[in-house]
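Supplementary Note 2. Why include the ligand at all?

Several targets in our set were suspected to adopt different conformations when bound, so apo predictions alone were not considered sufficient. For every target with a known small-molecule partner we therefore ran a joint prediction. The input for adenosine-5'-triphosphate is given below.
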Amino acid sequence: MSEDVHLSQICMDFGSFRAVNNVEVTIKPGEFFSFLGPSGCGKTTILRLISGFMEPTQGAVKIGGKDMKGIRPNARPTALIFQNLALFPLMPVWENITFGLEVRGVSKEKRRAKAEELLQLVDLHDSADKRISQLSGGQKQRVAIARALAVEPKVMLLDEPLSALDLKLRQHMRAELRAIQKRTGVTFIYITHDQGEALAMSDRVGVMSQGVLQQVATPQEIYNNPVNGFVASFVGENNVIQGKVASVNGGMAQFETAKGAFHAKLGASVGLGDQAKLFVRPEFCSLQPTNETKANSIAVEVTEIAFEGNFVNVFVRDNSGDTHMVQVQNDPSLPPPAPHTACQMVFNPESCMILSEAATSRHGH
Amino acid sequence: MQELIRRYGISLSVIMAAMTAFWLLALVVIPNLVLFKFSFRLYLPVDQLGGPNDVYTLKNYVTFFNSPIHINVFFLTIVYSSLVTLICLIITYPLAYILAKVLKPTDTATFFLVLLIPLWVSEILRSFAWFIILSMQGPLNAILTGIGLIDKPIRWISGFQSVVIGLVYAYILFMLFPIYNAIQALDTNQIEASQDLGASTWRTHWRVVIPHAKPGIASGCVMVFMLCAGSVVVPTTLASTNSRWFTEIIQQWMFEGLDWNVGSAYAFLLLALCILFVSLVMRVLNVRLVDIAK
Ligand SMILES: Nc1ncnc2c1ncn2[C@@H]1O[C@H](COP(=O)(O)OP(=O)(O)OP(=O)(O)O)[C@@H](O)[C@H]1O
Ligand SMILES: [Mg+2]
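The joint prediction is reproduced in token form.
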């Protein structure tokens, strides 16, 4: 039903420009894997390499252990859902869905039956004979998914398929896609620049920057233990403090900064004496009264409070004028300190990390 | 019209409208109406004009249907115009596809320039150039014998061969542009989606590209067919002893027989029968006129 995909040291050059650099990853059978990264980092290029619209300059794409070199897109066990869906406007819904079966010579009755079955699966009843132009955005989405599923691909490739939808529908379709993936057991490779989407849907996420795969891990691992400053700041919010590693003790380190010394987890690529940055998530910070100075704290003054509904963002300024953010649960019985209150921002050594600031870049090979 | 007045003011708008109306009326509608009227009257000596014989009649039209030779020529004109249209389509479709979807946009511009340059030369000169190219001692035969493809020169200018070659050359761009435009407007992702779903190149064209390009193909075909059937210069310049074109008969009536009445009746017959033929073909191929106008 599903196959693994192995990208073996692949590079893709456009002229002298290297769009994908040395990407090495194995995506397991039946896994929901996301490539997450900013615009232009090479996500679509990777998808086109897997689906066969491009051949890598170096390295190999292997699906189910088989090298795909020289195999054209129409002979690969993949199905691609395009960013703009690319449904065929001149065919009714059911012909769209079964186009892949039509080219395989399946009879009309069988195709029609399969179309009805797939429409059930994607929760679109009574739409078989509609024209594509009569469907809403979310319905088109489902038709595109059904069309891709009809050819029973081993690997499904999705290029930001939800980006054109409004927020509500996007969240609904997230759950739906995830459910369809679980039901069919097909390997999904999903591309997005939306971290929320990647974290919510995926078994594992690969974070990319400038053509280089920075980290491959579960969503929790990506969020809680980013390997470098790029991953930390691309996924979620951070308070960042510049400094130097003063001493190392196992996985922990002492970090000297202009705002004082902090105890924190040491990131993988940082060593004793390195210039680095301390990353602290706003929700791991708390604000406490100034009466006794705690470890891992910065003296601050509250400047602004932004009410977000289920939580509150408190903006604070330290003595050197830098702004930090502290996120607290909305609790009417325990309101956040009012603006101009002096307090200390405290964080646990276990929930902050010392990381090198830069991502591995496509030019650094 | 209101938009026009708002943009150019009332006086300029009136002048523009008047000039358009003049062009349409004086240069298109009135001459045609005059010919139309001619076609229902008889060719009489001057002294009988206005006399008892000067009546409106269908006799001129009947002349055509009583002349098997003319009917035969008309039939051949339709057949060979259709053949030219088909040849143009077969050559043009792959070319249009390559120009629209395979080449880089920068190369496309160069290609179009190369294709358009011959249009700067008049149709008569281009037909005559083909007359020279195709003649017994001409360059085409010289090249073909030179590279050893044929042993002795071919008589190109015989039957309808040379006329068909000349017409294909003269009108092929009228086929290329509408098809190019239609294919250009197709989202490349649709072609890729079709391939990704397993379709062969052939089927991708049959199910995705051609249906999308159908209005362009239809308008190209109608244009080329009508231009061919109504063409005078190419069929006369490249004519052989046995390639008569219907327009040549009209010309004969008008300028050799000096009988403008039968001549115009033939001209309107050609127009009417061609329109009938085109609409029949369109009906069969399930293309609507509104699609073509797009
Ligand atoms: N055919 C091509 N020729 C030249 N450069 C290309 C080509 N395709 C992509 N690139 C370049 O490669 C880089 C990566 O492009 P890609 O489309 O993979 O980005 P992406 O991560 O999908 O971005 P987005 O989120 O905006 O879709 C970009 O800088 C782009 O300009
Ligand atoms: Mg992209």
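DSSP finds 14 helices and no strands in chain B. The mean pLDDT of chain B is 87. Comparable summaries for the other entries are listed in the accompanying table.
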